[in-house]
Amino acid sequence: ALDLFPDEKSVIIDYNDLEMFNPDIADALLAKPNETLEVATDAIINIDPQRRDIGLNVRFKNVRNVVHLRNLKSEYIGKFIAVDGIIRKTDTIHPRIQTAVFKCRSCARIHEVKQKTNLIFEPAACSKCGSRSFEIIEDESTFMDTQTVKLQEPLENLSGGDQPRQINVVLEDDMVDTLTPGDKVRITGILKTQRDDKTKRYNNYIYGNYIEHLEQEFEELHISEEDEKEIIALSKQPDIYEQIIASTAPSIQGYDEVKEAIAFQLFGGTAKVLEDKTHIRGDMHVLIVGDPGIGKSQILKYVSKLAPRGIYTSGKGTSGVGLTAAAVRDDLGGWSLEAGALVLGDKGNVCVDELDKMREEDRSAIHEALEQQTISIAKAGIMATLNSRCSVLAAANPKFGRFDRYKSIPEQIELPPPILSRFDLIFIVEDKPNAERDHKLAGHILKIHQENTVPYKIDPELLRKYIAYARKSVQPTLTDEAAKVLQDFYVTMRSGAIDDESPVPITARQLEALVRLAEASARIRLSN
User: Which residue in 156, 170, 369, 457 has its CB near the most CB atoms, within 10 A?
Assistant: First the structure.
């Protein structure tokens, strides 16, 4: 690291190595990080053969003191900790003064004072003439970059209805500008507190020391060897599809096609990045349009709990910015980005209920997220593109509240064609009286009320692990025969939609949708 200075301004030390080398220093680092880090910086200057006074930052990775954000109480102030979270917004970069150079106004003598905080400390009196009036010379002083980011606790840890906790993190020097909103990180640093001059209250913040990116999605689930054996045995069973369908939203009777679609969506197709950097999405979007009272919201809620990173939002209470990203004014009056649901749900499932109740301008915000899987923003002087690689499961009611059997279907779906064509599968679910089915349904509901148990084939915990395993280790590819079948099907479908009355003609998008469904179906069998 000494030879690479000044391009590399940090030396990164593995905490485990330190602990093996000297457990006492390791404990001192956790208990009194300020002093320990200062000593470490001095030690590096002492071993530099060229005797340059260089300020290398000492950073520690793999610190085992990982604390949940909601447990960061006052007992941790001044301690060395690590927290996991998702970056909510990043502020602009500001310089902070490190060593201020003062000039005495009466005798022009120069004084250097090291600065610890943003408030500038002047020398008490001039050592030559005793005057107390100084001016600061900015050109001679040294500065360091600093940036504040807002960290929000990861969505996996939230139980329903909790407000996610947030904390500000101060990054300095070479850590500045390494984070963008939506990143999932583990930040190691010192919990400090600062008194606010206006409100006279103390606010906690983390003084960052090291950032580690966590790019995990389904992998967060720990799969043991026994689990793996169980999963592989399960995939060999001939009725694996029926079992998985029966275990998806088991509290709802029937609707096997919808459940099958949701199972496919949870397993997902394979995303591909072509040589010319074009991104073809692997996530499927499903839309359910149906009469009220058939359990659409129930299915959505179930999926948002089963998927490892599931977010549930409902149409009326969701603004376009809440779904995509908002430009917000930060404390200092600049603008910064705050990520919305589709960005925070990156690599997960986002369930949008009551899609038809959304305002027109908010619905258009979803267009780009559904097909390109990015969200671009240009407002308040911010130009940014954020990732939103999520599958969307949406539900909507027909235009007149219920289906009217004397009108054609497209008249009754109150959604514009551009949005309809982006959904891979659209289900029209009618609630028609049918003696046999009603009998089964009533029996099912009453049984759940009586026994408080739900009949599923595969335990939900195992199903999550099964999905995780399939997504991680199976990447299906199309064979020539499969491609031929899809091609023939596509051509026949297109030729059937030649007359003018046909509602949504199948487009090339639907062909890609078929490919994704085929891949997901292979994934369920854990086959390539």
Answer: 369
Per-residue DSSP letter, 221: S
389 Cα distance to chain centroid:
9
Spatial distance between the Cα atoms of 382 and 336, rounded to a whole number of angstroms: 8
Contact 377, 325 (CB under 8 A): yes
Instruction: Say if residue 323's pLDDT is above 80.
Output: no
Spatial separation of the C-alpha atoms in residues 391 and 386, rounded to whole Å: 16
Give the span between the Cα atoms of 156 and 298, in whole angstroms.
20
Contact present, 10 and 174 (Cβ < 8 Å): yes
Q: Does residue 467 register a pLDDT over 70? A: yes
> What DSSP state is assigned to residue 159?
P
**Cα–Cα dist 330/337, whole Å:** 9
What does the alpha-carbon distance between residue 173 and residue 145 come to, in Å, rounded to a whole number? 5
- Residue 402 has φ and ψ, to the nearest 5°, of -135, 165
What is the structure's pLDDT at 219? 47
In three-state secondary structure terms, 481 is: helix
One-character DSSP codes across 430-461: -----HHHHHHHHHHHHHHHHH-----SS-HH
Encoding tokens for residue 198? 């206006």
Which residues on neighbouring strands pair with residue 379, listed in sequence order?
Answer: 382
Structure token pair of residue 445? 């509901």
Sort strands 374-379 and 310-314 into parallel, antiparallel or unpaired.
unpaired
Q: Is 0.85 topped by the overall pTM?
A: no
pLDDT value of residue 155: 63
**DSSP alpha helix (H) spans, 372-421:** 409-412, 417-420
The dihedral formed by the CA atoms of 517, 523, 524 and 526, expressed in degrees to the nearest 10: 160
pLDDT in tens, 72-126: 788 888 888 888 888 877 777 888 888 888 888 878 788 888 877 666 777 778 8
